[in-house]
Amino acid sequence: MESIRLRLAHPDALYWHALLGLVTGLIAGVIIVAFRLVVEGAQDAMLPMHGENYEALGLVQRLLLPLLGAVLIGLLFLRFAGGIYVLGVARVMERMEYHQGHMTWRGFFLQFIGAALAIVSGHSVGREGPHVYLGAASGSLLGQGLALPNNSIRTMAACGTAAGIAASFNTPLAGVIFALEVLALDYSIASFIPIILAAASANAVSVAVFGGSPTFQIPPFIMTSLADLLPVLVLGLLAGGVSAAYIQALQSIASVGKKLSFFWRVCLAGIAAGACGALMPEVMGLGYDTQHSLLSEQLPWSFLLLLLIAKLIATSTSVGLGIPGGTIGPALFMGAIVGSLVGILTSQFVEVEATHAGFYALLGMGAMMGASLQAPLAAMVSVVELSHSPGVIMPGMLAIILAAMVSRQGFGKDSLFLSVLRANGLDYRANPVIGMLRRSSVGGTMNTNFVRLDPVLSRERADALMSANPDWIIVDKQGEPAYLIPGIAIASYLSQATDVAEIDLLGMPAERLELAPVHIQATLKEALDILRSRNAEALYVQRPLAPGINHIYGVLTRGRIESAYRY
């Protein structure tokens, strides 16, 4: 196992990372299937006729159910959170950026139970964000359990992210693009292949349980003239504006909610969700039944407008006040409404069939997702895989890019995930050089041609050691590694001081670099941080074997770290 860990320290360890990606996808797929079975089983047992039929509940039930769920979530986090209040995709991004992809069992169980309670109790949240977190946590926890280097743990967390999207909607390619686009990963064969295998294996598990039919089925639509693009342009503009309003509402509510404790925040979210559900029960839960209606028939524009406002308020309050649910599903829901409204508007000027109205709803889903997540390629692929409709590609590209530009350039909005992070006092900054340093572990860059010596040694032992031509000498001070001396410096001193019987490595003239320890699991980014924080000049790479006993694998200088990204 030790030799495998050292191989994985290299960024191009394709075989082992591919195998880990496959295993991560299978584990993540099983966990996500279990989550869906728990949620859908609870909904089927609680709701009449089918698991999305919140409309059949009475007014008082719709008012109180989200509040009950919020109280249970508040008590759960009050007892077990330990400071963890941000979950979902935003949490994955934060752990990847600042914690080398390390996640905890605490966060895993909080996400699983909290998101299940939120969805079942009718909060207007999605399941995709929790799926992403559960998938990423599955890969991260597996890597930590195997004591793999941190660059491998980051790769496994990214694999779990792709697996989460793939298993949510039967969209394996969208999962791959989502992981690379949202987590700002650089494309390379070594990073791409494990993520593909993870998405494919997780999707296979999901298909084995839930089947492989498309989530949303619409009849094929073929554009016959360029005039058909005019409604698409209008749709892109509207989706960009609604996306900006969605992000702004979430930011504003989150900033106001920070003044309250977490328990009272989620209780307030339960009251707001209950009020919205009492007035418009269609906004409760995931809302897939309503989305199917939007894709298959034309609904009154007044109803659609009220539904859009209610969904916007319900989702913004739930997510902004800390309910541990996803934001992607609600974005798709609102996008479908925007597309339906455009279809109704278009029908005032030209004859639009009901099937064509569904086509506009599908375009709206992609435009809203791409604009709110600032992930246009992932949105485009998602729409195609969700509907199995390749005819949506060209108009979808136009609508999605226009919506993303309106939200980003017109209204100055970042992605929904960055907004959630910043609303909770966190940040996320992707840097290509830092990304390169994170892809390599110290074990793949360190120099292993070294010897470790006490400060004073005999001439005979020094001559014997120099005959092996070590690159570096680690010199102990009070039993701990303290300095690093080039081997050539000692060899030069021995050639000049021919009559010296005893060598004092701390007193002889030579360049001595002050040492600091770094764990064998660390990435080059972590190593560079240690050099700066400890004011050290070099590092020795170690792994603790027992209290007070460390095995030293090699040494690492600043120049060797910088050689990993310098031309």
Which properties best describe this structure?
567 residues, alpha/beta, 63% helix, 8% strand, two-stranded antiparallel sheet
Describe the structure.
Strands 1-3-4-6-7-8 form a 6-stranded mixed β-sheet. Strands 2-5 form a two-stranded antiparallel sheet. It is 63% helix and 8% strand. Helix 22 links the parallel strand 6 and strand 7 (538-546). It is α/β, with parallel strands linked by helices and 567 residues long. The chain has helices at residues 2-8, 14-46, 59-80, 88-98, 105-120, 128-145, 150-169, 172-182, 189-210, 229-257, 262-279, 288-296, 301-320, 328-347, 354-373, 376-387, 393-410, 416-423, 432-438, 459-466, 487-496, 524-534, 558-562, and strands at residues 450-453, 456-458, 472-477, 480-486, 502-504, 513-519, 538-546, 549-557. The protein contains 23 helices and 8 strands. Helix 20 packs across helix 21 (487-496).
Provide a quick synopsis of the model.
63% of the residues lie in helices and 8% in strands. It is an alpha/beta fold.
